[in-house]
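stage 2 :: seqdesign
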């Protein structure tokens, strides 16, 4: 199950966001005030305060425990989403939760003080005491709850928009520098039209395709990833971290795609591609690996000697090498632990 679907608090958000600012949660207070029944209205205010503090506590706890309900890949997406939000100048989640919790504590305190003040006030002053308490409630809501609940709703929408990747399926992940033809290979390998997933911290879609192994019993997935550039500056951006996280948590087999035609752009020099290949391979030495040189219908003269002997040369234009690529990929995925588990469960 996509972990973020278990984290569904939309109804709670709707109650808190749209009932509180419009004072509907405190409707019983104002209704009885208008009827000059202040002795009953302060009891409604106490009930409203209790309901609100309980809902807010539940909301805060759900965010604090969200990671315990996520897979390792989902946890990495969560961290990337939060980092992306902070890089854009958004309020960090921890600060939002602190402000909401402060509002919760103040509401709880205010509701108890309201009951105490109204009980102790002379009968003629109960009305004024209720009005003062109501104003205090609304001030707390306006300062601590309303703006930060809206920020939290934005975060929830971002989490719900994250694409679903089934980490239980045997999976092949295509990796390489930008513009080397990864998404074209996904389309060529997939049995149907791949879906294009968009992440909030990427500037391009990520293609995910599916196919069956020859036994026709095991569904597998194949996906491309954002390109990894040379690491001369020693830092990776969020798109590159998504690629590395996908390899770490999803891949049973890595297809490393290279393009030596000279048409792939500034990040695709032979030395850069080999450097990225070496880096990724050293990070994940236990993942099954296939080296692929794409676009071989254009040129094969500039393939480095170190790659020429071991890499498959493929072309999605004339189909060259695709059958051999699929054959090796089938061998990799047929022996994956995920496939074994799927067959055992049938």
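stage 2 :: out
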């Amino acid at each position: 199950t996509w972990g973020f679907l278990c984290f569904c608090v939309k109804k709670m958000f709707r109650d808190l966001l749209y009932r509180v600012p419009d004072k509907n949660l405190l409707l019983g207070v104002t209704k009885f005030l208008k009827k000059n029944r202040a002795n009953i209205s302060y009891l409604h205010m106490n009930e409203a305060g209790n309901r609100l503090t309980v809902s807010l506590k539940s909301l805060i706890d759900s965010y604090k425990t969200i990671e315990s309900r996520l897979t390792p890949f989902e946890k990495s997406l969560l961290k990337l989403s939060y980092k992306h939000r902070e890089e854009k100048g958004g309020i960090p989640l921890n600060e939002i939760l602190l402000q909401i919790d402060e509002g919760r504590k103040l509401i709880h305190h205010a509701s108890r003080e309201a009951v105490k003040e109204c009980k102790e006030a002379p009968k003629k002053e109960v009305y004024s005491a209720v009005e003062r308490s109501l104003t205090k409630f609304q001030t707390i809501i306006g300062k601590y709850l309303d703006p930060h609940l809206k920020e939290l709703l934005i975060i929830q929408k971002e989490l719900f928009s994250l694409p679903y990747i089934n980490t239980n399926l045997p999976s092949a992940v295509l990796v390489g520098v930008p513009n080397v033809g990864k998404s074209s290979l996904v389309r060529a390998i997939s049995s149907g039209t791949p879906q294009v997933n968009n992440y909030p911290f990427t500037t391009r879609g990520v293609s995910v395709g599916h196919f069956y192994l020859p036994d026709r019993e095991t569904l597998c997935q194949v996906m491309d990833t954002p390109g990894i550039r040379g690491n001369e500056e020693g830092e990776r951006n969020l798109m590159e971290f998504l690629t590395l996280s996908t390899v770490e948590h999803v891949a049973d087999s890595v297809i490393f795609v290279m393009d030596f035609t000279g048409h792939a752009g500034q990040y695709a020099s032979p030395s850069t591609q080999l450097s990225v290949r070496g880096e990724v391979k050293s990070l994940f030495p236990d993942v099954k690996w296939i080296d692929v040189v794409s676009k071989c219908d254009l040129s094969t003269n500039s393939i480095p000697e170190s790659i020429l002997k071991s890499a498959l040369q493929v072309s999605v234009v004339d189909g060259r090498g695709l059958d051999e690529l699929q054959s090796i990929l089938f061998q990799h995925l047929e022996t994956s632990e995920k496939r074994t588990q799927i067959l055992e469960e049938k």
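stage 3 :: structure notes
- The first strand starts at residue 171 and ends at 175.
- Residues 8-14, 17-30, 32-36 have pLDDT under 50 and may be disordered.
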